[in-house]
TrEMBL record:
<dbReference type="InterPro" id="IPR011146">
    <property type="entry name" value="HIT-like"/>
</dbReference>
<protein>
    <submittedName>
        <fullName>Histidine triad (HIT) family protein</fullName>
    </submittedName>
</protein>
<feature type="active site" description="Tele-AMP-histidine intermediate">
    <location>
        <position position="103"/>
    </location>
</feature>
<dbReference type="InterPro" id="IPR036265">
    <property type="entry name" value="HIT-like_sf"/>
</dbReference>
<dbReference type="Pfam" id="PF01230">
    <property type="entry name" value="HIT"/>
</dbReference>
<dbReference type="InterPro" id="IPR001310">
    <property type="entry name" value="Histidine_triad_HIT"/>
</dbReference>
<dbReference type="GO" id="GO:0003824">
    <property type="term" value="F:catalytic activity"/>
</dbReference>
<feature type="short sequence motif" description="Histidine triad motif">
    <location>
        <begin position="101"/>
        <end position="105"/>
    </location>
</feature>
<feature type="domain" description="HIT">
    <location>
        <begin position="8"/>
        <end position="117"/>
    </location>
</feature>
Length: 117
């Protein structure tokens, strides 16, 4: 794991790296993905860093629930709460996780494909 990747989202949350912020509250922070994979692609992170969703779920399930509530809030703000959206937590190597500060991808705004099709 490289150190820059470890701290990237902490630096975005701290305002040290600019981001297109969609939603912010006491415990979570949401901003647009720099390399969007759908018309709407927003990342939701807890302000407190955990490596992945498994660690977050084990250590602080209430905070995980807050992350999910923020995903719903993002969907509402982006106008995709009714048309549908996908929440993805890439978790470690085989899933291609590259930033080791747990983040939910909120994807939507179009018909989404699935693996291999
Ligand atoms: P992962 O592959 O870890 O699940 O997702 C990391 C995501 O962070 C990727 O979708 C990538 O495009 C996004 N990302 C990487 N660096 C930056 C950045 O500096 N700013 C923003 N807004 N997104 C980033």
């Amino acid at each position: 794991m490289d150190d820059a990747a470890e701290t990237l989202f902490e630096r975005i949350v701290a305002g040290e790296i600019p981001a297109d912020v969609v939603h912010s509250d006491e415990t979570t922070f949401a901003f647009r993905d720099v390399n969007p994979q759908a018309r709407v692609h927003v990342l939701v992170v807890p302000r407190k860093r955990y490596r992945n969703v498994g660690e977050l779920a084990a250590a602080d399930p209430d905070l995980l629930a807050q992350v999910l509530r923020s995903c719903r809030k993002v969907a509402e703000l982006e106008g995709i709460a009714d048309s549908g959206y996908r929440i993805v937590f890439n978790t470690d190597a085989d899933a291609g996780q590259t930033v080791f500060h747990v983040h939910a991808h909120v994807l939507g705004g179009e018909q989404l494909g699935w693996f291999g099709g």
